[in-house]
Amino acid sequence: MSHHDMLEDEDRIELEHSDFDRMVQKGLNRRGFLKGSATAMSLFLAASPLAKAVAAATESKMIGFNAVPASTADTFVVPAGYVAEPLISWGDPILAGAPEFDESGMQDANAQAGQFGDNTDGMSLFPLSADHAVLAVNNEYTNYEYLFAHQGKQALTADEVKKSQAAHGVSIFEIKRNAKGQWQVQKGAQLNRRITAYTPMELTGPAAGHELLKTAADSTGRKALGTFNNCANGQTPWGTYLTCEENFHGYFGATGAIDLPAREKRYGLKEKSSYQWFTQDERFDLSKHPNEPHRFGWVVEIDPMDPTSTPKKRTALGRFKHENAAVTVDNSGHVVVYLGDDERGEHLYKFVSRNTYNPDNQAANRDLLEDGTLYVAKFNAADGELKGQGEWLELSHGKNGLSAENGFNSQAEVMIFAREAATQVGATTMDRPEWVAVHPDGNTVFCTLTNNKNRGVEGKHQPVGGPNPRAKNNYGQIVRWWPRGGDHTGARFDWDLFAIAGNPTVAEGLYQGSSNINADNMFNSPDGLGFDDAGRMWIQTDGKYSNEGEFAGMGNNQMLCADPQSGEIRRFATGPIACEITGLAFSPDQRCVFIGVQHPGEDLAPSHFPAGGNSKPRSTIMVVRRQDGGVIGA
Ligand code: FEO
Ligand code: CA
Ligand code: CA
What we know:
The protein has helices spanning 3-9, 19-30, 38-47, 109-113, 144-147, 158-167, 262-265, 277-280, 411-416, 418-425, and strands at residues 82-89, 120-129, 132-139, 169-177, 183-185, 193-195, 200-204, 223-225, 230-235, 241-245, 299-302, 312-314, 322-329, 334-341, 348-356, 372-380, 387-394, 433-438, 445-449, 477-483, 492-500, 526-531, 537-541, 558-562, 569-574, 580-586, 592-598, 620-626. By secondary structure, it is mainly beta. The strands form five sheets. A nine-stranded antiparallel beta sheet has the order 13-14-15-16-17-21-20-19-18, with no helix packed on it. It has a six-stranded mixed beta sheet with strand order 8-7-12-11-10-9, with no helix packed on it. The radius of gyration is 23 Å and the shape is globular. The two termini are 36 Å apart.
């Protein structure tokens, strides 16, 4: 089990269910679904004509490569005619004067603060010219078994906590393409920057300055220090980078007594945490600084073109365990940001800016994310249907029961406890919303629902139904929706399931997967998601790599290419042992794709990626191009 899964397994208060969930629960109970086994349920669903709602896939005209087979090898595999090379690995120097990586684990916090952080995740590319760009990359977390010589088997010292903090955050660096077509990191270049758990940041928007954001070190409630557990990302049309704070709770703990209310526990905060920061750094001690965690769980906006700029935490986008931030400009000019909250039974959100985007004056767009309205999704469907309608419920103080009598005294509190607000308005519990991606035509939105072992389990209040159609969902699915009338600011949408991951070789009914899943492309736990300019959709996985039992034949984590029109899904790349594939960015000419390989060899699984031999495994960004210089995927 990965550190990531461990964090998600930590106890938290179980959810109240929404009206829709109650309706489904009633329907299912009536037929005894929840009392039956998974197999009984899958047989019922297989017999239902509704199970055929996902259209059969036909061969894609837009995908041109030959699929790669599932792999259990300790390598990164791409299709025939493609080349994959490492761009940068954890510990490679970025800032001037930073030392080269040393795999002893003895380098200190200072060294790490000038080097590429650990566990690469979401990333965006900002072009400077055809062959010169800035890459902004999240460094989500770090593996103590590789970060330290003692492999994390000893309690951390204060210096070691500082090193851990420096391995987190964001890395920003210039890259250039040489005559051979290879992109290379420009060490010490002008725009290079490391952002860590101690970089000064500004809190902006409706929660900024609120009592709940004030601490002993910051009486204004507007000046936070750092960002960590930066999962996926977003990119704005005005040239900024969005980094999303996900499992922030895992860094906090308490040396003294604490008594957390339910709305705090829902974020996973508790006395102990695996990262141990609170043991050496008082800022993370909940018994001394109970408001510090309120300053995390936000989307942070960074200007990658100004290394001296202060990153801004955008509280208007709500506080939860953010996955990514999919930005689109609606026909009306309002900026819409779709946001997943990655935890079992949590929700899917969207933000609509108050002001409109001005393509002729980029400076005027700088604070569009400071002011707007947050909504949360409620999915509707008839019993057993794999498609239906949905609505966006507004999370504004004074509306939909978000009142003082229900515990919300201001818009600031609605944003700080967005999860509780979402429950209050009746949002649908989801199977862990990971990345959202908007099709380049602007009409369709997709979200990976990675898996959810709690779905349909008694006492978890996450009933089977709608876009979450399987109990103990171990494979995941991809939901797709169309805003009514093409209006991303509107309240209504229609949805279906683009793909239901599954295993047609060992499972039955819905657990076999939708008709576009077969023995040659099966995968589990879709997570990273993005489009290229031509509208090919790229799916990355963060699943079980046992390759046994219900996961037999799926191999290591991988990246697949999907044609949204035909429904076809084809495997494009496979990663090394015990890795997750996460993070993608295309060069502006679409002839190179940057792909993140996170945590190879996690928990001391036998990986030596990328250097081979007996080397320590290192999280690495791979650059993939075609030998003939053609467009990726075509
Ligand atoms: Fe950091 Fe939900 O993945
Ligand atoms: Ca993820
Ligand atoms: Ca994941």
